[in-house]
Amino acid sequence: MKNFYALTIILSFLFSMSGRSQTVYEVGADKTYTTVGAAWDAIKASSDTDVEIKVDEGVYIESVNMTGNSNKKITITGSGADKTILKKSTDDTFSYSSAKNPGRLMQLNAGETNLELTMQNIGFQVMGYTNTNGGGLLNINTGAGDGLKITFRNCNFKYIYARVGSIIQILGIQPNQSLVVENCFIEECGTFDNNSIEGIFTVKTGTCAIKNTTFMNNRFNVLNIGNTNTGTDRNLKNGGLISAGEGITGLTIDSCYFVGNQFNGDADKIHPLLSVKPGATASLTTNIRKLVSVGNNRPSYNDCDFYYNISYPPTMHDCRFNAVWNVDDITTPGSNIYTEVFEYEGINIDKSLTYTSPGINLEMDGELPKVYVDPLTGVKHLKTIGGSSISGRLIGKANICQENGKLIVKLETAGNIEVYNVLGKKEAAFLNVTDAIVPLQTGVYIVNTSAGSGKVFIR
Predict the structure, then answer these.
(1) What is the pLDDT of residues 387-404, one digit of tens each?
(2) How many CA atoms lie within 13 A of 396 on its CB side?
(3) Residue 297, φ and ψ in degrees, nearest 5
(4) Of the chain's two ends, which shows fewer C-beta atoms within 10 Å, N or C?
(5) SS3 299
(6) 289 and 255 in contact (C-beta within 8 Å)?
(7) Above pLDDT 90, what percent of the chain?
């Protein structure tokens, strides 16, 4: 027990030290601020540069469109993705067929620079537009300034839509911008009316990293239903889930699922889930690892999970696709899929793959994969038969996940990793490593790393 108490004291000290430089704004029914928007505006008017907005459990109707806050580091932390819910309307659902326009949560405009924004442990629901606007949750305009770094971590997204755009879009031209999405679940969201771009996430400059994230049951209507070219499908080949284009310099996708997503478009056009189309002068690094994309409902024989228009094949490892296309290979409708990618161990591109095919083996609930909720983060996730899961969580800069009764810890840079049980017994220790795998019994464990410390539950 002495070891346990000593470790508890050390962890408490580490956490207190890490938060001393931050100013904390509290949001809740009985707190200083009753909405995140009110705290956001207060920060904008203050001289504080490193801020955490701590949001109590509850449902928050955010009426303002949050803008501004340059030259600041802001972390918005909820009580769990299933406990802290941010909405733009009191409605319980929203879709592209709805006549309502609850609006977007956040807008970054011209002249707004050097904002490092992290949103974590939050559920985002009922946001977006059915009019001519994009950016259903977040819009970074083409004129926005340099140094915008956006991170979503341990979040659920549901009922978020955008017309002629994406629910989260980075349209700026400055190269020093980034979007990071870690350990999230996106469902029943979508875009429609292809007057312009589409995608759950659209990044046209800087870098994009999507990790440990599931896209499930999202909807996309690519038929133009605007004032001109009504009902046409312009074959833009933009990604319904992720669109990487023009000035993007780096794209990383790691441990993600694309399942059960639906398109509405013409049968002779191409509707990718992931599309990589950088500009002619862009120098893009594309790394895709442990991506499973199967069971998506699309109208065209040319539809694909991954479409790319780059001069060199992307690097992929341990992926499962129904189809992959390269722009130069689509010559015969319905012909064989394109497979000239940098193939490493475990890549399987096969139109016959399903949720229960070998190498995928998802636990099912009727016709769709079964959805679980992580008891620590509240984030939804899928599991394969045997108990493995791509659900993970970030502790500092340590990525913690589990698979088949094993604790998996990954660090961005080499460091030390220690694992203790709740009685303070050391289960494992590793020195100067970037990753570690520890077989463990079901229970709660404390993970102490050079990048951060916290608790994890092993099923």
Answers:
(1) 555 555 556 667 777 766
(2) 22
(3) -95, 115
(4) N
(5) coil
(6) yes
(7) 43
Helix, strand, coil shares of the chain, percent, nearest 5, are 5, 50, 45
DSSP letters spanning 373-393: E-TTT--EEEBBTTS-B--EE
- d(CA 183, CA 81) in angstroms, rounded, equals 11
The secondary structure element, H or E, covering residue 13 is helix 2-19
Q: How far apart are CA 318 and CA 360, in angstroms?
A: 11
- Residues in a beta bridge with 276: 244, 308
Strand locations in 217-340 (E): 219-221, 242-259, 262-264, 274-278, 285-294, 306-308, 315-317, 320-321, 324-326
Nearest to 214 by CA among 391, 457, 360, 346: 391
Contact predicate 268/236, CB 8 Å: no
Task: Classify residue 176 by its DSSP letter.
Answer: S
Q: CB burial class (10 A; 0-12, 13-18, 19+) of residue 30?
A: exposed
Return the CA Rg of the chain.
22
Between vectors from CA 73 to CA 278 and to CA 448, what angle results, nearest 5°? 95
241 pLDDT band, cuts 50/70/90, is very high
Q: Is the pLDDT of residue 5 over 90?
A: no
Identify the residue with better confidence: 176 or 85: 85
Question: Count of CB atoms within 10 A of residue 228's CB?
Answer: 7
Is the Cβ–Cβ distance between 73 and 50 less than 8 Å?
Answer: yes
The pTM score is 0.81
Model confidence at 381: pLDDT above 70: yes
For residue 439, name the pLDDT band (cuts at 50, 70, 90): confident
Amino acid at 9: I
Please state, as a whole number, how many other Cβ atoms lie within 10 Å of the Cβ of residue 417: 24
Q: Which two tokens stand for residue 94?
A: 């929203």
What burial class does residue 6 get, using C-beta atoms within 10 Å of its C-beta: 0-12 exposed, 13-18 middle, 19+ buried? exposed
Q: In terms of residues, how long is the chain?
A: 459
